């Protein structure tokens, strides 16, 4: 199988490396920034390009791993391609590729950073395709890369992406705010890491609602008042504290 990777960001990097590790022939890496394409191309023994007109038209699979707003414009450059074209977005409908002949979605439900290795075999892959044959081809690619593979349509994939924003992006932002609080009071975020790890481990075996702790779930008003006093000089954080505490209390009524 010959593959062209359109993109060189976090998702593209991990997908390209995972495909290469499986012996797939990555023939091109495209990026608007040739330096970024070159870096990934070097690691995957492929050719770097920065012009969409230079894309090899004979590949079997084209992976569009670019920001959501760019998917439609990139797909316009692939109209005459016979190979399978997939995008990797969680929030973008499969219809963004509907002008193409064979198309689908290969969405890895994971957070990626270029510099951090990850075992791709454990990454849940959500797939969707324009027809039964294309789905079979896409399923074979997904099964080669990972064991948890799910057929998820565009509407349900958007819901998954929304839930992932809450579970990952928002939670990580709360870590940032926690770091801001301890730094403000001359404490070290390192002290919170065992707490973070234990919470993450609990939800591997239990429903999150069953392992909730803290003053809000206990309805400990005096403690919550003390916390809010400490946040008087940080009004945005105080508002977030109040909103989340209210949501926890409502959930556990």
From TrEMBL:
SUPFAM superfamilies: 6-phosphogluconate dehydrogenase C-terminal domain-like, NAD(P)-binding Rossmann-fold domains
Pfam family, one: F420_oxidored
Residues in the signal sequence: none
Coiled-coil ranges from the UniProt annotation: none
Ranges annotated as spanning the membrane: none
UniProt domain DUF2520: residue ranges: 123-248
Domain Pyrroline-5-carboxylate reductase catalytic N-terminal residue range list: 2-82
PANTHER family (alphabetical): CONSERVED HYPOTHETICAL ALANINE AND LEUCINE RICH PROTEIN
Name of protein: DUF2520 domain-containing protein
Species of the source: Pedobacter panaciterrae
